[in-house]
Design a protein that fits this description.
With 226 residues, this protein is α+β, with helices and mostly antiparallel strands. 41% of the residues lie in helices and 24% in strands. The protein is globular, with a radius of gyration of 19 Å.
Amino acid sequence: MLMSDKHNRAFDPTAFLTGVGPGRKIVELQPEQTFFTQDDPADSVFYLKEGRAKLCVVSASGKQATIVLLSPGDFFGEDSLTDVPGLRMATAMAVNTCTAVKIQKEELVRLMHQEPAFCEQFVSFVVNREIRTQTDLVDQIFNTSEKRLARTLLRMAESGKPDETQTLIPPITHETLAEMIGTTRPRVSYFMNRFRTLGLIDYKGRIQVHRPRLRAVLADQQFARV
């Protein structure tokens, strides 16, 4: 058996991302606490184990926008991997109680060079996030706020099992949804009431999305043109 083969099989990315060791530690946050703040030094990457978090940006005038919701299994803070040390481009905040692994930049770079399995997992995640970001940009430019809201709800519900038709999405406020799609909270409330009337969602403590119905209306070119 070659030593390189033995080494590659011995490394377990999942075990690495759920434990502690050189260059990494477990952090636990309560709702509204921050992993890092916009303009902080970018020196580490996080892996979300449990809970929900969000990335927000604040403009020079003080206006805040939520740019992405984070789920267990997501990396964030990858802006620290640039060749030139820089500052955080966004604030990462816990939505509910969160547990994450904080990995120092140097340790992550070392691991990517030495462990192909981990490198493949991390690069795949970053590429998929880039594709999602481009899709969100197109959505923001060409679609109405009502359709953007429908797409956001459906994407949040897609983490459920493939054979489920109804999925409870993580707790989220109308204000956060408004930040994500670029509209006002009253408009989000109006659309949510309309979606409930149409049978696309229900409220049972949390928002319950009827995925097949929502997919069907999003496929309808007449949906939300006005």
